[in-house]
Write a structure and sequence with these properties.
Blueprint lengths: L6 E2 L4 H9 L6 E2 L2 E2 L1 H15 L9 E4 L1 H15 L2 H14 L8 H9 L5 E4 L4 E5 L7 H9 L5 H19 L1 H7 L4 H24 L1 E2 L1 H11 L2 H8 L5 H35 L5 H5 L1 H5 L7 E2 L10 E7 L2 H9 L5 H6 L4 E11 L4 E9 L2 H16 L10 E6 L2 E6 L6 H11 L1 E2 L3 E2 L5
Parallel strand pairs: 4-6
Antiparallel strand pairs: 1-7, 2-3, 5-6, 8-14, 9-10, 10-11, 11-13, 12-13, 14-15
Length: about 425
Protein backbone atom coordinates (compact mmCIF):
# COMPACT_ATOMS: atom_id res chain seq x y z
CA UNK A 1 0.00 0.00 0.00
CA UNK A 2 1.41 3.35 -0.95
CA UNK A 3 0.42 6.63 0.67
CA UNK A 4 -0.64 9.45 -1.63
CA UNK A 5 -0.26 13.05 -0.58
CA UNK A 6 -2.34 13.99 2.43
CA UNK A 7 -5.48 16.02 1.77
CA UNK A 8 -5.19 19.34 3.52
CA UNK A 9 -7.80 21.97 4.14
CA UNK A 10 -6.28 25.43 3.61
CA UNK A 11 -8.39 27.53 5.94
CA UNK A 12 -8.41 31.29 5.65
CA UNK A 13 -7.41 33.41 8.64
CA UNK A 14 -11.03 34.49 9.03
CA UNK A 15 -12.20 30.88 9.30
CA UNK A 16 -9.53 30.05 11.84
CA UNK A 17 -10.75 32.93 13.99
CA UNK A 18 -14.33 31.75 13.67
CA UNK A 19 -13.38 28.19 14.58
CA UNK A 20 -11.65 29.16 17.75
CA UNK A 21 -14.37 31.62 18.67
CA UNK A 22 -16.67 28.69 19.38
CA UNK A 23 -20.39 28.15 18.95
CA UNK A 24 -21.32 31.80 18.86
CA UNK A 25 -20.47 31.69 15.17
CA UNK A 26 -22.19 28.37 14.43
CA UNK A 27 -24.01 28.04 11.13
CA UNK A 28 -27.33 28.18 13.01
CA UNK A 29 -27.52 30.61 15.90
CA UNK A 30 -30.39 32.53 17.47
CA UNK A 31 -32.90 31.05 15.04
CA UNK A 32 -31.02 32.38 12.00
CA UNK A 33 -28.55 30.99 9.47
CA UNK A 34 -25.09 32.53 9.52
CA UNK A 35 -24.62 32.77 5.74
CA UNK A 36 -20.96 33.68 5.99
CA UNK A 37 -20.27 30.60 8.09
CA UNK A 38 -22.39 28.40 5.83
CA UNK A 39 -20.59 29.68 2.75
CA UNK A 40 -17.22 28.90 4.30
CA UNK A 41 -18.32 25.34 5.14
CA UNK A 42 -19.49 24.87 1.52
CA UNK A 43 -16.10 26.08 0.30
CA UNK A 44 -14.12 23.94 2.72
CA UNK A 45 -16.04 20.74 1.93
CA UNK A 46 -15.55 21.24 -1.82
CA UNK A 47 -11.83 21.84 -1.38
CA UNK A 48 -11.34 18.92 0.97
CA UNK A 49 -13.39 16.43 -1.05
CA UNK A 50 -12.00 17.77 -4.35
CA UNK A 51 -15.48 17.97 -5.89
CA UNK A 52 -17.44 21.13 -6.64
CA UNK A 53 -21.20 21.38 -6.34
CA UNK A 54 -22.87 21.16 -9.73
CA UNK A 55 -25.97 22.91 -8.42
CA UNK A 56 -26.76 24.94 -5.35
CA UNK A 57 -27.84 23.06 -2.23
CA UNK A 58 -30.42 25.30 -0.54
CA UNK A 59 -30.26 25.77 3.22
CA UNK A 60 -33.66 25.35 4.85
CA UNK A 61 -34.17 26.23 8.51
CA UNK A 62 -36.79 24.17 10.36
CA UNK A 63 -37.87 23.49 13.90
CA UNK A 64 -37.53 19.94 15.23
CA UNK A 65 -41.12 18.99 14.51
CA UNK A 66 -40.83 20.05 10.87
CA UNK A 67 -37.48 18.29 10.47
CA UNK A 68 -38.87 15.06 11.93
CA UNK A 69 -41.76 15.22 9.48
CA UNK A 70 -39.34 15.52 6.56
CA UNK A 71 -37.36 12.52 7.83
CA UNK A 72 -40.51 10.45 8.27
CA UNK A 73 -41.67 11.38 4.75
CA UNK A 74 -38.29 10.42 3.32
CA UNK A 75 -38.29 7.11 5.20
CA UNK A 76 -41.82 6.21 4.13
CA UNK A 77 -40.92 7.05 0.53
CA UNK A 78 -38.07 4.53 0.63
CA UNK A 79 -39.96 1.76 2.48
CA UNK A 80 -43.58 0.76 2.13
CA UNK A 81 -45.38 -0.72 5.10
CA UNK A 82 -45.79 -4.18 3.53
CA UNK A 83 -42.06 -4.36 2.80
CA UNK A 84 -41.17 -3.49 6.39
CA UNK A 85 -43.64 -6.06 7.70
CA UNK A 86 -42.17 -8.78 5.49
CA UNK A 87 -38.65 -7.89 6.60
CA UNK A 88 -39.64 -7.96 10.27
CA UNK A 89 -41.52 -11.25 9.97
CA UNK A 90 -38.72 -12.96 8.04
CA UNK A 91 -36.23 -11.53 10.53
CA UNK A 92 -38.16 -12.92 13.48
CA UNK A 93 -38.33 -16.37 11.88
CA UNK A 94 -34.62 -16.47 11.03
CA UNK A 95 -33.51 -15.07 14.39
CA UNK A 96 -32.36 -11.68 13.14
CA UNK A 97 -35.00 -9.76 15.13
CA UNK A 98 -36.81 -10.38 18.37
CA UNK A 99 -40.57 -10.81 18.64
CA UNK A 100 -42.72 -7.79 17.82
CA UNK A 101 -39.97 -5.70 16.23
CA UNK A 102 -41.35 -2.56 14.58
CA UNK A 103 -38.69 -1.54 12.07
CA UNK A 104 -40.25 1.79 11.16
CA UNK A 105 -40.68 2.98 14.75
CA UNK A 106 -37.26 1.78 15.88
CA UNK A 107 -35.43 3.24 12.88
CA UNK A 108 -37.12 6.64 13.17
CA UNK A 109 -36.40 6.76 16.90
CA UNK A 110 -32.68 6.23 16.30
CA UNK A 111 -32.45 8.60 13.34
CA UNK A 112 -34.35 11.29 15.23
CA UNK A 113 -31.45 11.61 17.65
CA UNK A 114 -29.26 13.20 14.97
CA UNK A 115 -31.67 15.95 13.93
CA UNK A 116 -29.20 18.84 13.91
CA UNK A 117 -28.56 18.96 10.17
CA UNK A 118 -29.28 16.48 7.39
CA UNK A 119 -29.40 16.31 3.62
CA UNK A 120 -32.82 15.58 2.11
CA UNK A 121 -32.20 13.68 -1.17
CA UNK A 122 -35.82 13.99 -2.28
CA UNK A 123 -35.84 17.80 -2.39
CA UNK A 124 -32.02 18.09 -2.57
CA UNK A 125 -31.91 20.51 0.33
CA UNK A 126 -29.83 20.85 3.45
CA UNK A 127 -32.12 20.92 6.47
CA UNK A 128 -30.79 22.92 9.43
CA UNK A 129 -32.61 22.52 12.72
CA UNK A 130 -33.02 25.55 14.94
CA UNK A 131 -32.88 25.29 18.68
CA UNK A 132 -30.30 23.97 21.11
CA UNK A 133 -28.54 20.85 19.87
CA UNK A 134 -29.49 17.68 21.69
CA UNK A 135 -26.79 15.98 23.72
CA UNK A 136 -27.30 12.73 21.86
CA UNK A 137 -25.28 10.07 20.09
CA UNK A 138 -24.20 12.10 17.07
CA UNK A 139 -23.24 15.11 19.16
CA UNK A 140 -20.95 12.86 21.18
CA UNK A 141 -19.42 11.41 18.03
CA UNK A 142 -18.61 14.90 16.79
CA UNK A 143 -17.10 15.63 20.20
CA UNK A 144 -14.46 13.02 19.40
CA UNK A 145 -13.11 15.12 16.59
CA UNK A 146 -12.28 18.30 18.45
CA UNK A 147 -14.00 19.18 21.73
CA UNK A 148 -15.38 22.70 21.65
CA UNK A 149 -16.09 22.89 17.92
CA UNK A 150 -19.63 23.51 16.83
CA UNK A 151 -21.47 20.23 16.52
CA UNK A 152 -23.86 21.62 13.92
CA UNK A 153 -21.03 22.87 11.67
CA UNK A 154 -19.31 19.48 11.63
CA UNK A 155 -22.55 17.70 10.86
CA UNK A 156 -23.25 20.19 8.05
CA UNK A 157 -19.85 19.26 6.55
CA UNK A 158 -20.74 15.57 6.85
CA UNK A 159 -24.16 16.02 5.29
CA UNK A 160 -22.91 18.29 2.50
CA UNK A 161 -20.70 15.38 1.46
CA UNK A 162 -23.90 13.39 0.95
CA UNK A 163 -25.10 16.16 -1.37
CA UNK A 164 -21.90 15.85 -3.40
CA UNK A 165 -22.35 12.06 -3.53
CA UNK A 166 -25.87 12.61 -4.80
CA UNK A 167 -24.85 15.08 -7.51
CA UNK A 168 -21.85 13.14 -8.80
CA UNK A 169 -22.70 9.50 -8.20
CA UNK A 170 -26.48 9.29 -7.64
CA UNK A 171 -25.78 7.27 -4.51
CA UNK A 172 -29.20 7.65 -2.91
CA UNK A 173 -30.94 6.42 -6.04
CA UNK A 174 -28.45 3.54 -6.26
CA UNK A 175 -29.26 2.48 -2.70
CA UNK A 176 -32.99 2.67 -3.42
CA UNK A 177 -32.53 0.34 -6.39
CA UNK A 178 -31.14 -2.41 -4.15
CA UNK A 179 -34.39 -4.02 -3.04
CA UNK A 180 -33.41 -7.69 -2.72
CA UNK A 181 -30.17 -7.72 -0.70
CA UNK A 182 -29.65 -6.25 2.76
CA UNK A 183 -25.99 -7.20 2.31
CA UNK A 184 -25.34 -5.14 -0.82
CA UNK A 185 -27.44 -2.25 0.50
CA UNK A 186 -25.45 -2.11 3.75
CA UNK A 187 -22.16 -2.31 1.85
CA UNK A 188 -23.05 0.72 -0.30
CA UNK A 189 -24.34 2.64 2.72
CA UNK A 190 -21.00 1.96 4.43
CA UNK A 191 -19.17 3.51 1.48
CA UNK A 192 -21.46 6.56 1.60
CA UNK A 193 -21.21 7.09 5.37
CA UNK A 194 -17.50 6.22 5.51
CA UNK A 195 -16.80 8.83 2.84
CA UNK A 196 -18.82 11.50 4.68
CA UNK A 197 -17.30 10.60 8.05
CA UNK A 198 -13.81 11.01 6.61
CA UNK A 199 -14.72 14.45 5.26
CA UNK A 200 -16.39 15.42 8.55
CA UNK A 201 -13.20 14.53 10.39
CA UNK A 202 -11.08 16.33 7.82
CA UNK A 203 -13.22 19.43 8.27
CA UNK A 204 -12.30 19.77 11.95
CA UNK A 205 -8.73 18.45 11.70
CA UNK A 206 -7.77 20.21 8.48
CA UNK A 207 -5.89 17.10 7.35
CA UNK A 208 -6.54 13.58 6.09
CA UNK A 209 -3.58 11.20 6.14
CA UNK A 210 -2.73 7.77 7.56
CA UNK A 211 -2.19 9.11 11.09
CA UNK A 212 -5.40 11.13 11.29
CA UNK A 213 -7.44 8.27 9.77
CA UNK A 214 -6.11 5.94 12.46
CA UNK A 215 -6.94 8.54 15.12
CA UNK A 216 -10.50 8.75 13.80
CA UNK A 217 -10.87 4.95 13.84
CA UNK A 218 -9.55 4.78 17.40
CA UNK A 219 -12.18 7.30 18.50
CA UNK A 220 -14.93 5.40 16.70
CA UNK A 221 -14.15 2.25 18.69
CA UNK A 222 -16.21 3.78 21.50
CA UNK A 223 -19.29 4.07 19.29
CA UNK A 224 -20.93 0.74 20.30
CA UNK A 225 -20.72 1.59 24.00
CA UNK A 226 -22.07 5.09 23.40
CA UNK A 227 -24.88 3.73 21.25
CA UNK A 228 -25.96 1.38 24.03
CA UNK A 229 -26.07 4.29 26.47
CA UNK A 230 -28.06 6.58 24.16
CA UNK A 231 -30.35 3.92 22.59
CA UNK A 232 -30.41 0.91 24.92
CA UNK A 233 -33.59 -0.63 23.47
CA UNK A 234 -32.53 -0.62 19.83
CA UNK A 235 -32.73 -4.06 18.15
CA UNK A 236 -29.24 -5.53 17.86
CA UNK A 237 -29.51 -5.94 14.07
CA UNK A 238 -30.42 -2.26 13.62
CA UNK A 239 -27.76 -1.16 16.11
CA UNK A 240 -24.97 -3.17 14.50
CA UNK A 241 -26.02 -2.12 10.98
CA UNK A 242 -25.84 1.58 11.87
CA UNK A 243 -22.54 1.28 13.73
CA UNK A 244 -21.09 -0.72 10.83
CA UNK A 245 -21.85 2.07 8.36
CA UNK A 246 -19.80 4.61 10.31
CA UNK A 247 -16.99 2.56 11.87
CA UNK A 248 -16.28 -0.13 9.28
CA UNK A 249 -17.35 2.25 6.52
CA UNK A 250 -14.74 4.82 7.63
CA UNK A 251 -12.09 2.10 7.93
CA UNK A 252 -12.83 0.77 4.44
CA UNK A 253 -12.98 4.17 2.73
CA UNK A 254 -9.86 5.23 4.63
CA UNK A 255 -7.92 2.28 3.20
CA UNK A 256 -9.17 3.04 -0.30
CA UNK A 257 -8.21 6.70 0.12
CA UNK A 258 -4.69 5.78 1.20
CA UNK A 259 -4.49 3.44 -1.79
CA UNK A 260 -5.32 6.10 -4.37
CA UNK A 261 -6.71 9.33 -2.94
CA UNK A 262 -10.15 10.72 -3.75
CA UNK A 263 -10.05 9.32 -7.28
CA UNK A 264 -10.01 5.82 -5.80
CA UNK A 265 -12.87 6.72 -3.46
CA UNK A 266 -14.87 8.11 -6.37
CA UNK A 267 -14.32 4.84 -8.25
CA UNK A 268 -16.07 2.97 -5.43
CA UNK A 269 -19.40 4.35 -6.65
CA UNK A 270 -18.80 2.99 -10.16
CA UNK A 271 -17.75 -0.41 -8.82
CA UNK A 272 -19.11 -0.66 -5.28
CA UNK A 273 -18.38 -3.56 -2.94
CA UNK A 274 -20.98 -6.30 -3.30
CA UNK A 275 -21.02 -7.48 0.31
CA UNK A 276 -20.41 -6.44 3.89
CA UNK A 277 -17.64 -9.06 3.88
CA UNK A 278 -15.63 -6.82 1.55
CA UNK A 279 -16.15 -3.82 3.84
CA UNK A 280 -14.97 -5.85 6.82
CA UNK A 281 -12.00 -7.21 4.84
CA UNK A 282 -10.90 -4.55 2.32
CA UNK A 283 -8.28 -6.87 0.79
CA UNK A 284 -11.16 -8.94 -0.60
CA UNK A 285 -12.45 -5.89 -2.46
CA UNK A 286 -9.04 -5.13 -3.92
CA UNK A 287 -8.67 -8.76 -5.04
CA UNK A 288 -12.18 -8.80 -6.57
CA UNK A 289 -13.33 -11.66 -4.32
CA UNK A 290 -17.06 -11.42 -4.98
CA UNK A 291 -19.53 -13.43 -2.88
CA UNK A 292 -21.06 -16.61 -4.27
CA UNK A 293 -24.34 -16.14 -6.08
CA UNK A 294 -27.06 -18.51 -4.90
CA UNK A 295 -30.40 -19.25 -6.52
CA UNK A 296 -33.20 -20.78 -4.43
CA UNK A 297 -35.65 -22.82 -6.48
CA UNK A 298 -37.73 -25.99 -6.44
CA UNK A 299 -40.24 -25.19 -3.68
CA UNK A 300 -43.33 -24.50 -5.84
CA UNK A 301 -44.42 -28.11 -6.63
CA UNK A 302 -44.52 -28.97 -2.92
CA UNK A 303 -45.82 -25.71 -1.48
CA UNK A 304 -48.89 -25.28 -3.63
CA UNK A 305 -50.85 -22.13 -2.77
CA UNK A 306 -47.71 -20.30 -1.65
CA UNK A 307 -46.07 -17.43 -3.53
CA UNK A 308 -42.72 -15.72 -3.30
CA UNK A 309 -43.08 -12.19 -1.89
CA UNK A 310 -39.41 -11.32 -1.43
CA UNK A 311 -35.82 -12.45 -1.88
CA UNK A 312 -32.94 -11.36 0.30
CA UNK A 313 -29.29 -11.84 1.19
CA UNK A 314 -28.23 -11.17 4.79
CA UNK A 315 -24.45 -11.31 4.38
CA UNK A 316 -21.66 -11.73 6.90
CA UNK A 317 -22.61 -8.81 9.13
CA UNK A 318 -26.22 -9.85 9.76
CA UNK A 319 -25.28 -13.52 9.98
CA UNK A 320 -23.01 -12.57 12.84
CA UNK A 321 -25.93 -10.87 14.61
CA UNK A 322 -27.97 -14.08 14.36
CA UNK A 323 -25.14 -16.32 15.55
CA UNK A 324 -24.63 -14.22 18.67
CA UNK A 325 -28.00 -15.56 19.83
CA UNK A 326 -26.62 -19.09 19.89
CA UNK A 327 -24.83 -21.11 22.57
CA UNK A 328 -21.19 -20.14 23.07
CA UNK A 329 -21.91 -16.76 21.46
CA UNK A 330 -18.35 -15.45 20.81
CA UNK A 331 -17.21 -18.66 19.11
CA UNK A 332 -20.55 -19.04 17.33
CA UNK A 333 -20.40 -15.48 16.00
CA UNK A 334 -16.91 -16.18 14.65
CA UNK A 335 -18.49 -18.70 12.27
CA UNK A 336 -19.70 -15.71 10.27
CA UNK A 337 -16.10 -15.31 9.08
CA UNK A 338 -16.69 -18.45 7.00
CA UNK A 339 -19.65 -16.87 5.12
CA UNK A 340 -19.26 -17.02 1.36
CA UNK A 341 -22.84 -16.31 0.26
CA UNK A 342 -26.49 -16.73 1.17
CA UNK A 343 -29.90 -16.35 -0.39
CA UNK A 344 -33.43 -16.68 0.92
CA UNK A 345 -36.88 -16.86 -0.59
CA UNK A 346 -39.67 -15.44 1.55
CA UNK A 347 -43.00 -17.13 0.83
CA UNK A 348 -46.58 -16.39 1.91
CA UNK A 349 -49.79 -18.36 1.55
CA UNK A 350 -53.36 -17.14 1.20
CA UNK A 351 -53.78 -16.98 4.96
CA UNK A 352 -50.83 -14.64 5.39
CA UNK A 353 -48.47 -17.22 6.94
CA UNK A 354 -44.77 -16.90 6.12
CA UNK A 355 -42.12 -19.50 5.33
CA UNK A 356 -38.46 -18.72 4.72
CA UNK A 357 -36.25 -20.99 2.59
CA UNK A 358 -32.63 -20.00 3.17
CA UNK A 359 -29.38 -21.40 1.76
CA UNK A 360 -26.07 -20.36 3.35
CA UNK A 361 -22.71 -21.23 1.77
CA UNK A 362 -19.69 -21.54 4.08
CA UNK A 363 -15.98 -21.78 3.30
CA UNK A 364 -15.34 -25.33 4.56
CA UNK A 365 -17.01 -28.50 5.84
CA UNK A 366 -16.14 -27.89 9.48
CA UNK A 367 -17.65 -24.42 9.53
CA UNK A 368 -20.78 -25.65 7.74
CA UNK A 369 -21.24 -28.47 10.25
CA UNK A 370 -20.72 -26.12 13.19
CA UNK A 371 -23.13 -23.57 11.72
CA UNK A 372 -25.77 -26.28 11.30
CA UNK A 373 -25.54 -27.26 14.97
CA UNK A 374 -25.56 -23.69 16.26
CA UNK A 375 -28.38 -22.55 14.02
CA UNK A 376 -30.60 -25.50 14.95
CA UNK A 377 -30.14 -24.50 18.60
CA UNK A 378 -31.02 -20.89 17.81
CA UNK A 379 -34.24 -21.92 16.06
CA UNK A 380 -35.17 -24.26 18.90
CA UNK A 381 -35.01 -21.37 21.36
CA UNK A 382 -36.53 -18.74 19.09
CA UNK A 383 -38.51 -16.06 20.91
CA UNK A 384 -40.46 -15.05 17.82
CA UNK A 385 -43.54 -16.91 19.10
CA UNK A 386 -44.82 -18.71 22.18
CA UNK A 387 -43.31 -21.88 20.69
CA UNK A 388 -40.52 -22.23 18.12
CA UNK A 389 -41.70 -22.05 14.54
CA UNK A 390 -41.55 -25.29 12.56
CA UNK A 391 -38.09 -25.60 11.08
CA UNK A 392 -35.71 -27.92 9.28
CA UNK A 393 -31.93 -27.52 8.90
CA UNK A 394 -29.72 -29.73 6.73
CA UNK A 395 -26.12 -29.57 5.51
CA UNK A 396 -24.79 -30.88 2.24
CA UNK A 397 -21.09 -30.27 1.71
CA UNK A 398 -20.34 -26.66 2.61
CA UNK A 399 -23.94 -25.50 2.06
CA UNK A 400 -26.71 -25.37 4.66
CA UNK A 401 -30.43 -25.31 3.90
CA UNK A 402 -32.88 -23.92 6.46
CA UNK A 403 -36.66 -24.04 6.06
CA UNK A 404 -38.47 -22.01 8.72
CA UNK A 405 -42.22 -21.58 9.12
CA UNK A 406 -45.26 -23.73 8.30
CA UNK A 407 -43.69 -24.94 5.05
CA UNK A 408 -41.09 -26.84 7.08
CA UNK A 409 -43.78 -29.39 7.89
CA UNK A 410 -43.33 -30.59 4.31
CA UNK A 411 -39.53 -30.81 4.61
CA UNK A 412 -39.29 -34.51 3.76
CA UNK A 413 -40.46 -33.69 0.24
CA UNK A 414 -39.57 -29.99 0.11
CA UNK A 415 -35.89 -30.17 1.10
CA UNK A 416 -34.82 -32.68 -1.59
CA UNK A 417 -36.70 -30.65 -4.22
CA UNK A 418 -34.95 -27.42 -3.19
CA UNK A 419 -31.54 -29.12 -3.15
CA UNK A 420 -32.10 -30.48 -6.66
CA UNK A 421 -33.28 -27.23 -8.23
CA UNK A 422 -31.14 -24.61 -6.47
CA UNK A 423 -27.65 -23.56 -7.51
CA UNK A 424 -24.52 -21.91 -6.13
CA UNK A 425 -21.96 -19.86 -8.04
CA UNK A 426 -21.72 -20.67 -11.74
CA UNK A 427 -25.08 -22.43 -11.81
CA UNK A 428 -23.83 -25.81 -10.66
CA UNK A 429 -26.37 -27.85 -8.73
CA UNK A 430 -26.00 -28.18 -4.99
CA UNK A 431 -24.41 -31.38 -3.61
CA UNK A 432 -26.57 -34.53 -3.74
CA UNK A 433 -27.83 -36.21 -0.62
CA UNK A 434 -25.12 -38.22 1.16
Amino acid sequence: MRSRGAARLRRSAALVMLTFAGCAYAVVSGGRVNLRRAGQIYSDVQELRQLHFKTEVPLVLMDRSQANSVMEHEFSGDHDYAELQRSATAGELTGLYGAGTNLETQTMRVLGQQVVAFYDPQDREMILVQGKSQSGLWSRIVGFFRPGDSTSDTLVAHELTHALQDQYFGVHAAIDRITDSDDRRLALKAVMEGDATLVGYGYVSGLIDAVTIQTLLTHLESLPRMFDVESPDTPVALRDSLIFQYTDGARFVGEVYLHGGWNAVNALYARPPLSTREILNPALYFSHAAPLEITVRGWAPTLKGWREVAENTYGELLLRVILRRGPGAPAAAALADAWRGDRMAVLQNGGGATTVIWIVALSDYGSAAAFTRVYEAILEHSTAASAPAPHYVERRGTAVLAIIGPGAIESSELAPAVWRASAIGDGAALPPAP
